[in-house]
Specification:
It is built from 6 helices and 17 strands. The strands form 4 sheets. Strands 12, 13, 14, 15, 16 and 17 form a 6-stranded mixed sheet that branches. Bound molecules: zinc ion. The site of zinc ion (ZN) has 8 residues, from loops.
Length: about 300
Amino acid sequence: MIQDIAPHVFHNEYTPRPLKDLDAIVCYDGNKVLMDITAGEDKAIFPQLNDFTPEQQQRIRESRRLQYLFAIDEIGYILVPMDRIFNPGTEPVDSDWTGATGNTLRFLHIQKVRQQSDNCVGHAMMVSYHLSDWMNKHCFCGRCGSMTVPHAKERAMYCESCGNIIYPQISPAVAVAVVDPKTDRILLAKGLGEFKKFALIAGYVEIGETIEDCVRREVMEEVGLKVGKLHYFKSQPWGLTGIEMMGFYAELDGDDTVTIQETELAEARWFDRSELKEEPTMSLSFTLIDTFRRGEYVNWLK
Ligand SMILES: [Zn+2]
């Protein structure tokens, strides 16, 4: 899955430090992130300080708004506001741009970066997007309305006026592979949105609800099925939507008649193993499906 970056090591302990030359410069423009695409869009990497002109480097170094995010191995990921790199209106940011080292830089869509081959880059983008989006949405204190600042010691935003501390928001959610052990089938569903593939039942954990109850409720709401035994599989942080996804196999209990929730789903049905194709397993959802396809899910049902 995308967060599996071994032998590299993700360090999410919060240890802010000054910018170093080899650190990754993380700069977002909405849903796009500045990447070095010299080796191709599919092999994009985060730029470093020396990719920028001496003037830009100076503006970046002097900025009070550089934000240490995390590190992978020894490389720090530093969030830099776009106006520290580009003067609004005077330099093109919508097209390719040649950096000071001759490298080609471009603001790439986050989905494009997510799908490229190096999990280190994909995972760093997911986590940095999550943090950048959270910081943008918490520039002001929700209690007293004053401007917030990054907390000096914790990964949090802090209100100096009233002392409010705002931690990163992570929403728990579940992905559920409903299986019928008697007939060796899996239930897949297609949503109404832009994503056109068959995937798993999924949804957010509601307030006051256990994870287990969430699994049972989502399955009943979306496809009208009752499930019995639940088998926890794995979890996955998904920064693009700020969720922590927990994956389960859930055994059908009783009638297998599917009744879809028409406000959520376009289609849902049972699949035999032979109908499934090999899929990329960057996401937990497709890892659950692929583990079923390969017959390994039975280990999880014991
Ligand atoms: Zn406040």
